[in-house]
Amino acid sequence: MKLLSAFSEKKQSMKRKLFGYMFLLAVLLLVLVFAGLLLIGQFTGIKQKTYETLEFQADVFERQIDAHIDGLAVMGIQLSSDATTAIENYLADSRIAFSDLNNSEKNVSGVQEALFDILKHKLMETDCSGAFIVLDASVNTSVENAAQSRTGLYLQHSSLDSSDNGILLYRGLSDLGKKHGVMPHRKWRLEFSTDLFPNYAQLIKGSELPLQCSYRISDVFTLTGTSERAVLFTLPIIGDDGAIYGLCGFEISESYFKHVFSQPNNLDHVVFAVNSGSDGIKNAADSFSCGIANGYYLAPKGEFTTSSFGNGLTLFEGNSTSYIGVTKQIKLCKDDCDFSISVLIPKQDYNSWSANNTVRIILLMLLLVTATVGCCFYFSRRFLLPIKRGLEQIKHKEYGGYSNVTEIDDLFAFLAEQDRIAEAHFVEMESQKATMQSTLDQMTNEKNEAEQNAARLAYSRKNEVDPYDYEQFLMGVKTLTSMERTVFEYYLAGKSVKQIVELAGIKESTVRFHNRNIYSKLGVNSLKQLLLYAAIMKQDEEGGDIK
In this predicted structure, what is the pLDDT of residue 547? Predict the structure, then answer.
């Protein structure tokens, strides 16, 4: 307001003032527009927009993972239950105990035969890359590392094709596999090593929980003899009497994860990662990642340090590549095992978005300012043009034209009427001046005549005045004090006592006191006599002759 007041008070041309007011109004409107757009989120910062985009993608990713795990849990419970039934039926039909599977190829073969079709069908029905059943027994307990050796079946899809023709036998009896049309994996082994299962001992102890609460998800590991990384979804196989027969579950390989969980997205490069722990991706080796559907992504490699990037975003800094992303903690199992998902974009992509956003905002601002200045200049010029023309007409007193501006045309009419009135008034004044001059001349003549008459009267009265008294009067005048002389002069000027009080600034009693002194010194008895002597004195001083 101070700026506006200073601008309005400063002497400026009408054009500059109007341009200034219009520019200020335009700026105010722009500020209000920007404020409104900010309120509705049109100019949300790049960080906030990035966060909202990645958070939305994280929610979608989380829902997809949750749905997939729920599906695995349902199929896993069925697999565990069917495997338990098949094992117990075989043990009952063979009249053997579960422990009799140890060191018995016949019994191991019989149990695997009973389980093979069950496992194969579950592999075909489940969204996974492999399925397995591990029995807590070994064909030969006397060999080296027998304590870590377990019999069982492990079937894998040879490719992302889930047909019967694409199934391989990773663990189990090779002859049994060939019998069912399943060829051995190039890294086939007869039995499992418990090293294949991260935390095997802990997984096998899940029988104290209900089956629907017993499933676990392993950490990321590399399958023995291959370069393929995977995670295992496991459930215990528990007999009716609570005996633990082993583990069963499904495999999610890294290639399968990338194929299934790739997200439809408009972003150029985005990484979706899942790993154990609640802090997000710290080491790429401990996580699974995927990118966008029908595209590629820059897979994280190595270790990362994390720090806050603001607005809910996290900065993941690696040795070769840095990412900006969000992390959400999720719970995939019924126990206290925590997982987290991360949705990341390369930091260079974020920097590019930020730079482009800044450039767009700057260009938009420049465009708006340029348009504002141009509009203000155009409209102020267009608005003031008829006014300037009108002022030129006023300067030259040309009131007959039309400016096409109602107010200016009204001004022309008003000024023309004022000129007419002024001219009439001037004529009247000239007439009055002539009349007054005539009256003044007459009054001057009358005044001169009156002065002559007064002089004649004073001269004639002088002959009637006692010369001795008049002489005393003249001597008395010389003896008057300054204040008495002042009062005397006021009387000669025709002033009354009240007027003398006001003019001299003295009291009425003081005036009367001076009156007595004046009368005494001048030898007169009345104001009439004083004025008569004064007139004669003036006549003598002027030395005029009376005609």
Answer: 40
The number of angstroms, rounded, from the C-alpha of 393 to the middle of its chain's C-alpha atoms is 52
What angle do helix axes 482-492 and 497-504 make, rounded to 10 degrees? 130
**Of the candidates 233, 238, 199, 214, which has an alpha carbon nearest to the alpha carbon of residue 87?**
238
Q: Mind spelling out the 3-state secondary structure of 125-165?
A: HCCCCEEEEEECCCCCCCCCCHHHEECEEEEEECCCCCCHH
Instruction: Yes or no: say if 292 and 265 are a contact pair by the CB < 8 Å rule.
Output: yes
Q: Tokens 């603001």 correspond to what residue?
A: 310
How many angstroms separate the CA atoms of 82 and 94, rounded?
Answer: 18
Structure tokens at 379: 């409209």
* AA letter at 276: S
Provide the β-strand partners of residue 263.
Answer: 292
Phi/psi of residue 335, nearest 5 degrees: -90, -160
End-to-end CA distance of the chain: give it in Å, rounded.
Answer: 82
Fold of 465-542: Rossmann fold (3.40.50)
Evaluated on CA atoms 494, 497, 502, 505, the torsion sign reads positive
Token pair 């000129």 in the structure block, residue:
419
The 3-state DSSP class for residue 383 equals helix
Question: Cβ of 435: how many Cβ atoms within 10 Å?
Answer: 10
Alpha-carbon span 239 to 225, nearest angstrom: 32
Query: For residue 242, is it left (φ>0), alpha (ψ between -120 and 50) or beta?
Result: left
CA distance 239 to 244: 6
Pick from 280, 256, 258, 276: which is nearest to 332 by CA? 276
Q: Where are the domains of the chain?
A: 62-258, 465-542
CATH 3.30.450 holds for 62-258: yes
Q: What is the DSSP string of 308-340?
A: EEETTEEEEEESS-EEEEEEEEE--SSSS--EE
pLDDT per residue as tens digits for the range 32-59: 766 665 655 555 578 888 899 899 999 9
Q: 216, 234 in Cβ contact below 8 A? A: yes
Q: Residues in the chain with pLDDT < 70? A: 1-19, 21-22, 33-44, 161-165, 205-209, 293-296, 334-337, 361, 376-405, 407-412, 415, 443-444, 446-464, 543-547
Quote the tokens at residue 57: 């993608």
Q: How far, in Å, CA of 476 to CA of 468, rounded?
A: 12
CA torsion angle 503 507 509 510 (round to 10): -70
Q: DSSP string of 245-261?
A: EEEEEEEEEHHHHHHHH
The structure tokens listed for 250 are 């499904």
The percent helix, strand, coil of the chain (3-state, each to 5) is 55, 20, 25
Name 320's Cβ contacts closer than 8 Å, sequence gap at least 6: 301, 302
3-state secondary structure 485-521: HHHHHHHHCCCCHHHHHHHHCCCHHHHHHHHHHHHHH
